[in-house]
Design a protein that fits this description.
The protein is of the alpha+beta class. The chain is about 15% helix and about 45% strand. A 6-stranded antiparallel sheet has the order 1-6-2-3-4-5. The longest helix has 9 residues, at about 25-30.
């Protein structure tokens, strides 16, 4: 099953299938280690849902939902 990273629930794990966006946003996501094949765990969401905290490649990372919407994920059960 595929969905965007910003649609994940707390505790859900997935694998990055593709990173969209243009220019700075795409480059920023790649620089942070969000690349195709990377496993991502959604750890926390702020009270209003933005930002979100994920674990990727062994470290914690905070993303805005506007950035996470460009990351296409495959849900791992």
């Amino acid at each position: 099953m595929q969905k965007m990273l910003n649609e994940f629930a707390i505790g859900e794990t997935g694998r990055v299938l593709a990173v969209g966006g243009e220019g700075k946003i795409k480059r920023r996501l790649f620089d942070m280690g969000i690349t195709p094949g990377a496993e991502v765990l959604l750890r926390k969401k702020a009270p209003l849902g933005d930002p979100i905290e994920i674990t990727v490649r062994g470290y914690e990372l905070t993303l805005r939902k506007s950035e996470a919407q460009f990351v296409t994920m495959e849900v791992i059960k």
